[in-house]
Amino acid sequence: MKTIVSVSQGSSEFDYDLETEFLGQLFRIIRIGTDGDLSRAEAMLESVHPRADAIGLSMLRDHYQVGGAQLRHPITARLEACVPDKPITTGAGLRAILQEWAVRHTQSELGHFFDNARVLFMDGQAGYRIARALSEHTENLFFADPYIDFGVPRLLTSLKQLETYTLLTAPVLRRSLAVKAVDTFRHTPLYHLGERLVAGSLHKAVSDAQVLVSSIADLADFSDKELDGKTVITSRVTESALDWMRSRRVAMVVDYSPWLAGRPVGVNVMEALISASRSRTPEQLGPDDYLDVIQSLGIVPRILYPNGYRRVNRFAFVIHPLSQQYLTKTSPLDWIASVSPPLVMNLVEKAVAYAPPFIYSKVSGIRSPTGDEAEGWLITVGGTPREIMAHDPEFTYARLLQAAELGKKLGAQIMGLGAFTKVVGDAGITVAKRAPLPITTGNSYSASGALWAAHEAMQRIGRIDIGPSGKASGKAMVVGATGAIGSVCARLLAKAVDEVFLAAPEPAKLLALKETIEQETPGAVIHVIGAADRDLADMDMIVTATSGAGKRILDIMKVKPGCVITDVARPLDIPPEDVARRPDVLVIESGEIQLPGDVQMKDIGLPKNIAYACLAETIVLTLEARFENFTLGRNIEWEKVREIYKLGLKHGMKLAAISGVNGIFTEEDFEQVRDRAGIGHSIPQVVACNSPSN
After folding, report:
1. Cβ–Cβ < 8 Å for 17, 30
2. Angle at 64 between CA 59 and CA 67, to 5 degrees
3. Other beta carbons less than 10 A from residue 473's beta carbon
4. Where are the beta strands (DSSP E) in 459-515?
5. CA-to-CA distance for 436 and 457, rounded, in angstroms?
6. How confident is the model at residue 62 (pLDDT cuts 50, 70, 90)?
7. How distant is the alpha carbon of residue 692 from its chain centre?
8. Among 223, 225, 217, residue whose Cα is nearest residue 241
9. CA torsion 239→241→243→248, rounded to 10°?
10. Are 558 and 533 in contact (CB under 8 A)?
11. Strands (E) located in 381-496
12. Better pLDDT: 203 or 469
């Protein structure tokens, strides 16, 4: 029987002595903790080395190769010198493989998990292989080595900085006298002042990070508030360690340590076992030695969820002021507006359009029933609709790309375009080609939400019944049916309403669309007309989707009382003055979505936990980890409208509110429409027959 002894600078509380089989050979493994006492560790090594076939050193820093710098740690070298005639190792060779594999395994298993993640390394030199692997997926790497080594209040912010830092400090750390000088410096008032400064910045860095690469011991001083929702890459995660992670609300742990005899073992122990079983020194071990052991033992990095499955993904969403009035809600523009004539505010409006993007609000607390979570940032670009439309599209593209770069630095894995930023130029296509992260306009869920809202409104007004066909017995018209959103609405309505009228001034396209719908939905009754006004008075529901930009789309005075008009065009097809002329008609601008969880964000003009459908689309894709260009351009795919609706239901999205030009409709608003339209107060029971899922 061969003997492996692991001498640790850690606590003796965790000592063990066990016998096990390894690669067909019997081994005795002894773990001896020296409680941080270096002299005791030296004495223990001298005592045990005659009976050990190989020795592991634990809770010590490896000798590192960081970029072009070779860093030999003096304390580790000092202990190694105690055993000149036996294989002795910290496990550096195996650790490098397992660390890198942990990143690649997790990214493969979870898909895009580390994309743009903000990663903080408590010891970048120890985690250099992890950092190199992560650098393929994110540029947001931060290293606390200056603090750990010298108490210097500075975080390194790139692999290049870490390599340069190591090159400069390696000669200092090699010399034991210099190490003693550092130890002496640690007891001076100047050091303790720096320690307090860095402690604060380090706590902030932990709070701002999404992924932490650290030993469990190095996280001991951080609170549950700081660690809530984080992913930790570490090793030797025992049940007690997992309990501690659970108490700190850590979302996910990636454990790269190997297991043996039903327990995690130090990488130093595993490498000592390989060395003894193959009668080679650690320096003589090659890739095949490691690969054979990893495959024969079935060693795989563990992905653990301390509190049950919980994955936190990240998004950015672009907003902008919708008018000068919105600008006056921000300090100091509120003061300027109160003392300045309109001409000055016109100049301010123009100037703000040139301002760089900035974070309006952090968004957190979005929790799907699946266990997936989303957090993100609302990023403001300064242009009002008037300024956006007054400039060349390249003007807005440039600001959206700046917003995308900001989102990437924050850790976002996808970005949505809100309001007028999604209609500029080619509606997101150019931005998606140039942006450093996937883009969506949210128009698929906007169309879905609008029809969802229309169905709900017709039910609440009492306008429709379910006919023999299982569809809503009534007539619906789509004005602008040959357009991108219009054709989507037409195809969905054909599955839900008895008769659908398609209106557009393009006869050939209308005939082609009618033919497509009849093939997709056998039995659908489709009529095509060139002008909406001809059959307007017979409609129970109307969808306008022309983006006529100020042109009169239909004569609202011809619409029957109690009709529900859904205006999905941007800019709106139905002007507010037309809406005001018909209080017996309900004109819907959008359907807002209730988000799952306890959502925390600044006011966006909607009640708590409620978001515009375009923002909700970005959030749904984030929860689903669908980090891809989803809705782009003006040709919206109706399959995506249905898909995003179903994904929304999966993640707990609900229709929260129905909005018109004056905001969210109340029950009193519906009551007034019913009264003025002369519709009875009994509301029929209607299934979601014309929801986008069907």
Report:
1. yes
2. 150
3. 14
4. 472-479, 497-503
5. 40
6. confident
7. 26
8. 217
9. -160
10. yes
11. 415-417, 439-440, 472-479
12. 203
Per-residue pLDDT band at 240 (split at 50, 70, 90): very high
Rounded-to-integer distance, Cα 159 and Cα 143, Å: 9
Q: What is the DSSP string of 625-660?
A: T--S--S-SS---HHHHHHHHHHHHHTT-EEEEEEE
Residue 271 token pair: 């490498």
Q: How far apart are CA 288 and CA 591, in angstroms?
A: 60
**How many angstroms separate the Cα of 297 from the Cα of each of 22, 31, 98, 258, 319?**
9, 21, 13, 9, 52
By DSSP bridging, strand 590-594 and strand 610-611 are antiparallel
CA-CA distance, 250 to 241, in Å (whole number)?
11
Residue with tokens 């072009």: 68
- Single out the residue of 258, 245, 215, 223 nearest to residue 310, CA to CA: 245
Peptide bond into 153 cis (omega under 30): no
pLDDT tens per residue across span 606-616: 889 999 999 99
Is the pLDDT at 692 greater than 50, yes or no? no
Compute the distance between CA of residue 218 and CA of residue 212 in angstroms, rounded to an integer.
Answer: 10
What's the burial of 550, exposed, middle or buried (CB within 10 Å: 0-12/13-18/19+)? Answer: exposed
Which residues sit opposite 611 in a β-bridge? 593
Q: Please, are residues 627 and 112 in contact by the beta-carbon 8 Å criterion?
A: yes
**Does 301 score more than 80 pLDDT?**
yes
Contact 11, 52 (CB under 8 A): no
**C-alpha to C-alpha distance for 427 and 51, rounded to whole angstroms:** 73
Look-up: residue for tokens 């990095």? Answer: 301
Residue ranges of alpha helices (H) inside 111-188 are 128-134, 145-150, 159-174, 176-185
Could you give the CA distance from residue 129 to residue 466 in angstroms, rounded to a whole number?
63
